[in-house]
Amino acid sequence: SLPLEKQVIELMKKAMLLQFDRVYTLLGVGRGLRAAVLDDLQRCAVLVQGCWVVHSSLAVEHKLRNARDYILWCFTKNHVITRKDLTATLKITTSQLRDLLDPLAIPRTGGGWEFRQSLDEDFISKYPGVVTSQNEWWEKRRSDLVLALGIGVSPDTVNPHPQQHGVVTGQKILSTAIQKSKDIQSLHFTPLRQHSLPPNQIIKTHTEGVVKTEMSTVEKAISLFCVQSIGRGVVSVSELKDRLLLHQISLSEGDPLWGQGISDDLVGVALSSTNVVNVGQIDGKKLYALRNIGDKTDPYREIVLNMYKTSRCLKRKVIQDEITKQHNECDNKILSLVLKDLCKSRGSQWFITGMEK
Questions:
Q1: Residues forming a β-bridge with 160
Q2: Strand partners, 286
Q3: Residue 259 DSSP SS3
Q4: φ, ψ for residue 118 (rounded to 5)?
Q5: Beta-ladder partners of 114
Q6: Residues 316, 350: contact at Cβ < 8 Å?
């Protein structure tokens, strides 16, 4: 297997943005390695809203690094920023700006872009030393950006209403860290050395034409992996992304999925050409299942999936009656297999797996 440092780098390059506990969980390492994971994170990622974001040198081509760092700096000051202000400040195309924002933020219906992760107060309270070190790093980076971009950077130009709902300022983050650290009797943490990021960490770039060609290959690779991963059961899009990230760590350069960021939209596009169907949604995340798996359960499976398009829960008797209506009989052994694959029961009601909570 890859050394831990390499695993952390590969995971962050693919995930782009993760909370610390999520990084630790996805790596699947022992509890004694938390400090080592955090040490490695500081080599390849930066802290924004208490979350870790892969360093720009590992995420975008050289000419867009300053623009991406400016966006990230804005997010250290506010949880919501406006694209209009960014376009005027950075002087990049709308397409380039959207490509930079998509992995980091979600467009709000009322306007602006909201950071994809909520403030990680748990990390901030446990590791105030790291938070302080990262804030210092960002202030130095801000000065560099002012010179590099020829701009005057002010949080007020990013968001003129820093007290509006959902907005978390950089000062509040630091204040939260300091206050919460006082309430923790034992952090079980030894402050780590501060790392400078190597200037030669540059990802390989491609021409626009090559990227378009590769995307088709990437979608096919994602489709194949997802179909195999879903199997007979029901899997959420977040679970699929987690499995893809873990799978990617083991890949070598040259594989279609190597170095490829995985978004919900990309998974959705990749699955659109398969027999995978959306069978529900939990906590805003879609649930997927295979319509057919190539065995004797397929006829019943398709009926069950169709029934759950209009019902959140069903009694077994109702499902039996519908199968009997369409096939003149119902084999209870086959139905039991289908329900075991796709559903969970609560009392007399059956729910699509994941929807029973």
A1: none
A2: 281
A3: coil
A4: -75, 160
A5: 80, 106
A6: yes
Q: Is residue 135 within 8 Å of residue 174, measured between CB atoms?
A: yes
Report the residue count for the chain: 357
Helix (H) or strand (E) holding 54: strand 51-54
- Return the structure tokens found at 195: 């790392």
Q: Quick one: CA dihedral 87, 91, 94, 100, positive or negative?
A: negative
How far is 88 from 83, CA to CA, in rounded Å? 9
Strands (E) located in 151-203:
none
Handedness of CA 344, 350, 354, 357 (dihedral sign): negative
Q: Is the pTM of this model over 0.70?
A: no
Closest CA to 74 of 224, 124, 315, 66: 66
Could you tell me which residues are beta bridge partners of residue 339?
A: none
Could you say which DSSP state residue 117 is in? Answer: S
Identify the helix (H) or strand (E) that includes residue 223.
helix 208-230
Q: Where are the alpha helices (DSSP H) in 231-313?
A: 237-249, 264-271, 298-307
41 in Cβ contact with 20 (< 8 Å):
yes
Contacts of 117 (CB under 8 A, 6+ apart): 17, 18, 19, 49, 51
Place of tokens 């820093």: 162
pLDDT tens digits, one per residue of 83-140: 876 877 888 898 999 999 999 998 887 788 999 988 998 999 889 889 989 999 999 9
* CA–CA gap between residue 35 and residue 82 (Å, rounded): 36
Which residues make beta-bridge pairs with 52? 18, 47
Strand bridging mode 285-290 / 80-81: unpaired
